[in-house]
Write a structure and sequence with these properties.
- By secondary structure, this protein is an alpha/beta fold.
- The chain has one domain: Rossmann fold (3-Layer(aba) Sandwich).
- It is built from six helices and twelve strands.
- The strands form three sheets. A seven-stranded mixed β-sheet has the order 6-5-4-7-8-12-11, sandwiched between helices.
- The longest helix has 18 residues.
- The termini are far apart.
- 41% of the residues are buried.
- The protein binds S-adenosylmethionine.
- S-adenosylmethionine binds next to helix 1.
């Protein structure tokens, strides 16, 4: 069932716990998983297989996404590129097939398990957008496609701050999300029980949070949904780390 809810007020402090589900440190980072992302993680663990069944081939009917991703890969010129909130890894794998050294990061261990099985040409790590399991300036480019939609409003700034930390100066960041306002709550998805809020975000608010984190906005694209997509307005923000 899908119900509209008002945005939840959120006054509790951010809770960060080190490496409960994250993996052993690689190259100097320590992955962290937030306690209060438990329901998001558990929900995506529940739907990981069916999510992959529905979306693993989506780039075949998304020429705009392919073009934007190709540009990001080209910009990285064979260096390491991140897919932040990579889900079952189909986009990460596609970029590896284009010649990038692709790394996918996701909160959900089950998603990462699917990704490792289906996209062995790429690397995958379990981790949280708010404490990326990544070294400082490790990546030459990053994308975050429909993953920031599960963050609380006050988590956008720290998430973009983490992206800036993990990106080298001059790197490109591509963020995609559902445009609008309000929250759609789901307690069922593809016949599985979940507990998920999908936030519709203002393109202006996302752009200014990205800018405040230390990026210049290079482009913004707004588009209606494709016939095979969920019926929401889509927005892409392309930014470059400048400081
Ligand atoms: C709607 S799916 C998008 C997956 C993929 N990027 C795509 O375009 O199909 C959202 C993904 O973001 C992940 N996610 C949500 N919150 C996250 C967080 N705080 N840190 C890391 N990943 C997160 C979820 O586990 C899920 O795989």
């Amino acid at each position: 069932m899908v119900v509209e809810t008002a945005q939840r007020a959120r006054s509790e402090p951010l809770l960060v716990r080190h490496a409960r589900d994250a993996e052993a440190p690689r190259g100097g980072y320590v992955g962290c998983v937030r306690d209060d992302h438990d329901s998001v993680r558990a929900s995506y663990d529940t739907v990981a297989g069916v999510y992959a069944d529905h979306l693993r081939d989506e780039l075949a009917y998304k020429p705009l996404d392919r073009a934007l991703l190709r540009m990001v890969v080209e910009h990285a010129a064979g260096s390491r590129v991140a897919d932040l909130g990579c889900g079952p890894g189909h986009v990460t794998g596609w970029r590896a097939d284009q010649g990038a050294e692709a790394v996918g990061i996701d909160l959900s261990p089950a998603m990462i398990e699917v990704a490792r099985r289906e996209q062995p040409q790429a690397e995958f790590r379990v981790g949280d957008l708010l404490a990326l399991p990544a070294g400082d300036e490790e990546f030459a480019a990053a994308v975050a496609l429909y993953s920031i939609i599960h963050l609380q409003p006050d988590e956008l700034a720290p998430a973009f701050g983490e992206m800036r930390r993990a990106l080298a100066p001059g790197s490109l960041l591509l963020v995609a999300f559902h445009a609008g306002d309000g929250v759609q709550h789901r307690d069922e998805w593809w016949d599985r029980t979940v507990e998920l809020d999908f936030r519709f975000l203002s393109p202006a608010d996302v752009s200014s949070a990205v800018e405040r984190a230390g990026f210049d906005i290079e482009a913004r694209i707004d588009r209606p949904h494709l016939p095979r997509e969920a019926a929401t307005q889509r927005c892409y923000v392309l930014a470059r780390r400048v400081r």
